Amino acid sequence: MTQALDRNLQTQPLDVPSAIVQRRAIKNFKPDAIAPELLRRLVELTVAAPSSWNLQDWRIVLVQDEAQKKALAEAAWNQQQILQAPVTFVFAADPNAWQDREQINQIALETGAWAQQNVDYFNSAIPQFQAMLGDKTREYAVKDAVIAATHLALAAESFGLSSCFMNGWIEDQVKAVIGASDTDLAIAVVVPIGYAADPRGNPGRLPFSNNVFVDRVGTPYEG
Amino acid sequence: MTQALDRNLQTQPLDVPSAIVQRRAIKNFKPDAIAPELLRRLVELTVAAPSSWNLQDWRIVLVQDEAQKKALAEAAWNQQQILQAPVTFVFAADPNAWQDREQINQIALETGAWAQQNVDYFNSAIPQFQAMLGDKTREYAVKDAVIAATHLALAAESFGLSSCFMNGWIEDQVKAVIGASDTDLAIAVVVPIGYAADPRGNPGRLPFSNNVFVDRVGTPYEG
């Protein structure tokens, strides 16, 4: 553990551009554990992500237990990376989180980031906004969870760890594994974290002309 | 321009943990332009994000024209940051992108990251997976666009720029502004990028006990 900590927390983490360029979706992990102090730092950096109205509507489950890893892998067509990685983060999203903001308001008032007038505005605006979302309520909660998952992946990369964004799972089965079957939680994304056993190549990117535009779709970004 | 480039691309970008901790949702930007070389670097780092099956199904519109900025702000309840920031990235997502993978396959074969057997597998698996998604097809495309937007926000922060994840807009109006009314594109998130005019405070985060768990929802992560 100390050794793992030494080679991660005590060395300078990668800068953002390097972490972005270096990151690949790793499918094979070494069995090496992640030092508890390093895991804690990853969790801190994950929940430092922004969220709509600062709702922090992600519900994050760190799957570490061997039986739980096996059950989660079965919910994901037995993809081995979940069995191999020391921890897999399941990012769920609570579409009802906006209804309970008391503690969020209290903390923001204490930090001084929000004044009472901000809280009053939010108390008026948030229910209106959420009502307007209608059937997109789930999508908006999922977006917040995905932002947090991306913070995790890049933070992990910066400390010498690897990750894999996984969409290949059966939602109802994942919910059963994490004990959320009787809730409205949406499963957003599943992210194993660990030390890469095998490198993976970069499949490359489309030219900007395919999907980056200026002012209107169809006007190419010449860069 | 040269001056702006000097203070960004020629200095060491921030490491990932520092960029994450430092980032705030900035609502007021200076009128300072972003050097073209720096903007290009941001676009490169944005599309370096991972996506489901490497579909790169984001459609990114850099809104810079004054009239377009005004129209986009109007679609977003006149939030001033769109008018103030030199560029606002509109992240749209194409739920039909999976149907056209020829160029993606070709590039990945050329880089050597994929072999023909990978392409054959994808050609079989992707249509099945997308059919299974059903009414979640849109959500899955939106997730990819949000991962890319998060890459942008952290890359911008690392170069001394600021950002703001915006959900407050009328989707049909944003689509009209970017000329996408007659498409299936979903608007995922809108992100102004520029130099912060005013700092913003950190509203803080909930204790881990609220939303971080081990193995099952409800089992607290003690950290």
Number of domains of chain A: 1
CATH architecture of chain A: 3-Layer(aba) Sandwich
What is the name of the CATH superfamily of chain A? NADH Oxidase
**N-to-C order of helices and strands of chain A:** HHHEHHEHHHEHEHE
**Secondary-structure-derived class of chain A:** alpha+beta
Q: What's the shape of chain A? A: globular
Q: Note the gap between the termini of chain A.
A: 46 Å
Number of strands of chain A: 5
Strand content of chain A: 5-15%
List keywords for this structure.
homodimer; 223 residues; alpha+beta; NADH Oxidase; 4-stranded antiparallel beta sheet; 10 helices; 44% helix
Overview of this protein structure:
Two copies of one chain form a homodimer. Chain A has helices spanning 2-6, 16-22, 36-47, 66-74, 80-84, 102-111, 116-133, 137-158, 171-177, 208-211; strands at 58-63, 87-93, 162-163, 186-194, 212-214. Chain A has 223 residues and is α+β, with helices and mostly antiparallel strands. The first copy, chain A, has a single domain (12-193), classed as NADH Oxidase (3-Layer(aba) Sandwich), CATH 3.40.109. Chain A has a four-stranded antiparallel β-sheet with strand order 1-2-4-3, sandwiched between helices. In chain A, helix 2 (16-22) packs across helix 8 and helix 3 packs across helix 8. The first copy, chain A, is globular. The termini of chain A are far apart. The model of chain A has no long low-confidence stretch (mean pLDDT 96). At the A-B interface, helix 2, helix 3, strand 1, helix 6 and helix 8 of A face helix 2, helix 3, strand 1, helix 6 and helix 8 of B.
